[in-house]
Structures are given as structure tokens and as C-alpha cells.
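Researcher: Let's do a round of design. I'm pasting the C-alpha cells now; please hold your answer until I've finished.
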């Protein structure tokens, strides 16, 4: 029963009040637990001793119940060291200054020693006492190292140091961290941590304040980082300030490990959404669902731009690392800022959604990107003049029924300066991966299946199986022609719709193609994508009140406050 109810700390507190400590068979608390491990079981007299519980427990009846009759008479005597400086009694000192000391003394079986502690002016502000100083309490007439050690360990039970937003605390090995591990089924069935050193926790008494807790081993060995690097990484994580990126709420260090408390908690991944819409989206009206999908595109662009603005690349933009909460808020998964993510021999999803310059498969046919560019240029020359290679990426022209080929009428691919770099720019790689996500969202927007899209990409005769692509290659970068034909099909369907939302979709498809350029330098920046998506949603799609619309008006760029340019009226020119 207690295992099922360990989240309900108020029930446990009531059980303690009614039946005493021994009425509880097992109390669980967070103490560096890892996912799939049982919560740490503490003795049956363990409780979450916060200030409220301490104050409500130590009263006159409680103190007298742990003293002999002759000792209770002494409670009302004036302090032996008070003289004329104070009129306080022993009881008044206990309830105003030494409640925790008395609780510890009761815990270790020597409550009568409270009088000697008060005579020596000990109070709760002196806690915690280092082990070598506990002997000064003189808990026995003769030195008792075993009892001193017991006091040292048990004092932390009544000294709960609660974490606060933005803090990093260093806990002693014997301290209890006031966090409760949660059973995953209580916080979502489709979203689960992806690391074996990750679990979900909440603050005792506040079961709705849930965090993802990640454990990082500290040291100089393999798979470890130094404490200095951990603290440095925390500072870098604090620099991230975007509601659509998993952020650091607080952190702590204990037992040669660092712990990150991350928020928000996710309920679904984009992978699951692309397969089956969750109930929170299904209940929306049809047009509201469509607006939500388009709004996600703006939110994701703003999130990526906020990372790039401080020099961070995400590097893991893929459906399984994009999350949704119960309110349909979308956000990117955490960045492995410490470089400790396990390296797999082959990650199919990372390969499929990764940029060509970061994939070994692209070099199997080094002329494929250039052939695609030449073919698309030949198509473009029939309908529009080719711009100068140095010309900046222009905005998309207004959608029109006469534009029967979105590729030939709006796509500009400047001549590449050279072949893709073997290493690549991870920031430019983020843009490519984000473009893949955009196309998945637009596919869902047009009521197409992600699985059908994947089969379409892998429809051409595949190259012989290799280590990089052991199965049919459905990656975006290896099937550029198939991606192009899919975009053309979506654009054709969108132009046949009367709703303004679909007019915006054609422009978003054009932007997506720029993001999917095989050459990194041809891709727009994340901030350009954010501004362009906002402009399309506002002017072309008729979407009002985007989720990140107000946040975009003021940004911190290089220490300066930048006011975003106003979006021109439909048909007007930007300043």
C-alpha cells in the first residue's frame, strides 16, 4: 500500500501523526536513484522533516513525552547561563531555537541531553555539525564514538535543504535530498527517459512539480567528467533561455555524482504524434489542429535560433527528441552539453534526419547533389531567370493558382562553392534537420502519412547495403529527388484548397526546400527561418496570435536589446 502511495506525502504525514513513526513500514526518498531502480528505503522512522513538520511536531506534549517526570519539571526553570540577560526557560529555548537538536537527540535515544546542550548554548543554527565536533555535545559522560557518529548521520534527517530554481547545492553523502522518485506510469505512457541514468522526480508534498533528473558521474575515468566541468556545463545550460527547449531548473552534487533537474516533463514525442494523434490534439477542431501544426514550426525555429544565438548547436533534432506536454506545447529535447551520450554504431533516425555533410553515405555518390542542382536549375530556367549566385535568399512570391510548379517558380539554389565538408558546421546541420521536421509536419498538415512519406523516399532502387545504411535508405539527404517530388505533390494539393492556411503551406514548403539544400552555405539561418515562418503565418496563412509572437518582439542579441522588425501588411514591403 505504501509503495502505491509514496507520492501522497500528505497521507504519510497523517499516518505519522496518528500512529507514530512505527506505523509506517517504509518511507521512500530520492537519494541518487537511477531509472528502473527501486527508490531508496529508509528506516521506518524517516519522514520529510521540513520546517512546517518540525514546528508542528515539537510542542509541549511532545517534549514532555520524551522526558522523565523530574526532567519535565526542569523545563520551566530559567536557563542556567541566563543570569539577568534573559528570562527564557529551557522549554522556551527548545521550541524557539533547538527543535531540530531535540529531534535528533530523541532519534538517537538521549533526549535528556537537551539540557546540557542548552546550557552550552547550542541551537539549530549550529547544525550540521562536522563529525569531529559532535563530541563537544558530550552526549555521554565518557567518549562514545558510535553515538557521535549516529548523531552526525541522523542530524541530516531533520535538516532538509530544499532546492530552489537556479541553485546548485552540494549535499553530504549522508544527507537526504528532498525529492521523490515517481513511477513513470503516473506521468505519461508514451514518453519515457532515453538514458539509463535518468528518472522522474517530484518535490515532496508537491506531486505536480515534476522534473526529469539526470545523473552524471564525476571523476577522471571513462564516462565521467570533473566537478569543474560539471559546474561549467551548468553555467552554459543556464544561458539557454527558451520555453521550447528543455531547461535546467536546478542541480546538485552528491556521492561523486552531479544531478540535473530538467523541465518541462513531456507526455509524447513527435514520433508518436506522427503515428497517432494524442487525445489532447484529437479533441481540437479541425482548423485549430492545422493552426497548431503551423505554430509548432514557428516555435521550433525560435528555439533553434535561441541556441544558435549563444553559439550552441543542438545536433539531435529528430522526431524522437522533440516532445509535447499535456497542453500541446512543443519543445526540443536536452542537448548533451557534457558529451556523455553513448555512441551507437548506427542510429537509423539520426542518419535519416541528419544533414548530408555529416553522413558518410553522401560520399558514396559525390556527384548526386550537383546532378540534382543542375536538374532543378534546368527546370527553373523555363519559367524564371536564374538569380546571381551571390544574391541573398529572396522571400517567396505570393502564392497564386498560376504557380503550378512551386519548385521551378520559387526555389533558388546558388552555385555551391565546393563539395560538402566532411565534418560540416553543426549549426548548419541543425537547419537541415529542422527542415526535415518541417516537412514531416507539413505532411501531417496535408493529412498524409509519415510512413507513406518514408516509403516514398525509399522507393528508388537502393544502393547495396552498407554499414551506414544496412536497410532500404529512406533518409532525406540520400533521396533528394524523392523529397522534391513529395513537396511538389503537397504543394499541388495545397493550391486546390480554399482555406488561407493552405496558401501559407505553399510558402512554408518553399522555405523548407531552402533548408534542405545539400550544401550548408545555401541554407538560411535559424533566425531567418523564424522570421520567415512568422511572416508567412501572419500575412499569408492568416494566423493570429502565434505562441511565440510576443516573445519575438524583444530579443537579447550580443548583449544588446534588438526590437524585431514589424511584419508588413499583406502585399506591402518590409522596412
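Researcher: That's everything. Go ahead.
Model: Designed sequence:
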Amino acid at each position: 500500500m505504501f509503495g502505491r502511495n509514496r507520492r501522497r506525502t500528505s497521507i504519510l504525514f497523517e499516518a505519522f501523526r496518528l500512529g507514530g513513526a512505527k506505523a509506517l513500514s517504509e518511507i521512500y526518498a530520492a537519494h541518487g536513484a537511477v531509472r528502473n531502480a527501486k527508490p531508496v528505503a529508509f528506516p521506518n522512522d524517516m519522514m520529510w522533516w521540513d520546517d512546517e513538520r518540525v514546528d508542528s511536531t515539537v510542542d509541549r506534549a511532545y517534549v514532555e513525552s520524551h522526558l522523565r517526570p523530574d526532567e519535565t519539571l526542569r523545563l520551566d526553570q530559567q536557563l542556567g547561563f541566563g543570569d539577568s540577560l534573559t528570562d527564557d526557560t529551557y522549554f522556551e529555548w527548545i521550541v524557539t531555537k533547538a527543535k531540530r537538536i531535540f529531534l535528533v537527540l530523541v532519534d538517537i535515544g538521549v533526549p535528556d541531553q537537551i539540557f546540557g546542550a542548552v546550557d552550552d548554548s547550542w541551537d539549530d543554527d549550529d547544525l550540521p555539525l562536522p563529525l569531529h565536533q559532535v563530541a563537544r555535545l558530550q552526549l555521554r559522560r565518557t567518549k562514545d564514538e558510535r553515538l557521535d557518529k549516529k548523531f552526525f548521520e541522523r542530524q541530516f534527517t531533520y535538516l532538509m535543504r530544499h532546492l530552489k530554481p537556479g541553485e546548485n547545492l552540494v549535499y553530504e553523502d549522508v544527507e537526504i535530498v528532498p525529492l521523490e522518485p515517481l513511477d513513470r506510469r503516473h506521468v505519461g505512457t508514451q514518453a519515457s527517459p532515453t538514458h539509463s541514468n535518468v528518472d522522474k522526480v517530484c518535490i515532496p508534498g508537491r506531486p505536480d512539480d515534476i522534473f526529469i533528473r539526470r545523473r552524471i558521474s564525476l571523476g577522471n575515468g571513462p564516462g565521467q567528467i570533473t566537478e569543474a566541468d560539471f559546474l561549467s556545463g551548468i553555467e552554459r545550460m543556464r544561458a539557454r533561455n527558451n520555453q521550447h527547449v528543455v531547461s535546467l531548473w536546478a542541480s546538485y552534487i552528491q556521492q561523486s555524482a552531479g544531478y540535473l533537474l530538467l523541465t518541462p516533463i513531456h507526455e509524447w514525442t513527435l514520433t508518436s504524434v506522427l503515428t497517432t494523434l494524442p487525445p489532447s490534439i484529437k479533441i481540437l477542431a479541425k482548423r485549430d489542429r492545422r493552426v497548431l501544426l503551423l505554430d509548432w514550426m514557428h516555435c521550433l525555429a525560435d528555439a533553434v535560433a535561441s541556441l544558435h544565438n549563444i553559439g550552441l548547436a543542438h545536433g539531435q533534432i529528430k522526431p524522437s527528441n522533440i516532445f509535447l506536454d499535456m497542453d500541446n506545447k512543443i519543445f526540443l529535447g536536452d542537448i548533451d552539453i557534457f558529451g556523455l551520450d553513448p555512441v551507437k554504431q548506427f542510429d537509423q533516425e539520426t542518419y535519416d534526419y541528419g544533414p548530408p555533410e555529416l553522413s558518410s553515405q553522401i560520399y558514396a555518390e559525390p556527384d548526386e547533389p550537383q546532378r540534382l542542382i543542375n536538374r532543378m536549375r534546368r527546370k527553373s530556367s523555363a519559367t524564371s531567370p536564374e538569380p546571381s549566385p551571390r544574391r541573398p535568399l529572396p522571400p517567396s512570391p505570393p502564392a497564386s493558382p498560376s504557380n503550378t510548379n512551386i519548385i521551378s517558380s520559387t526555389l533558388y539554389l546558388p552555385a555551391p562553392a565546393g563539395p560538402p565538408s566532411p565534418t560540416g558546421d553543426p549549426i548548419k546541420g541543425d537547419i537541415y534537420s529542422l527542415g526535415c521536421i518541417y516537412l514531416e509536419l507539413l505532411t501531417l498538415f496535408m493529412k498524409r502519412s509519415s510512413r507513406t512519406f518514408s516509403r516514398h523516399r525509399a522507393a528508388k532502387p537502393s544502393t547495396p547495403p552498407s554499414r551506414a545504411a544496412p536497410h532500404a535508405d529512406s533518409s532525406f539527404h540520400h533521396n533528394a529527388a524523392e523529397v522534391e517530388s513529395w513537396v511538389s505533390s503537397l504543394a499541388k494539393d495545397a493550391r486546390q484548397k480554399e482555406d488561407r492556411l493552405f496558401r501559407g503551406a505553399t510558402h512554408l514548403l518553399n522555405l523548407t526546400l531552402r533548408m534542405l539544400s545539400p550544401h550548408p552555405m545555401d541554407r538560411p539561418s535559424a533566425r531567418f527561418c523564424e522570421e520567415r515562418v512568422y511572416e508567412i503565418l501572419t500575412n499569408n496563412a492568416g494566423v493570429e496570435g502565434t505562441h511565440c509572437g510576443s516573445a519575438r518582439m524583444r530579443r537579447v542579441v550580443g548583449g544588446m536589446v534588438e526590437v524585431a522588425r514589424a511584419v508588413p501588411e499583406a502585399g506591402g514591403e518590409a522596412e
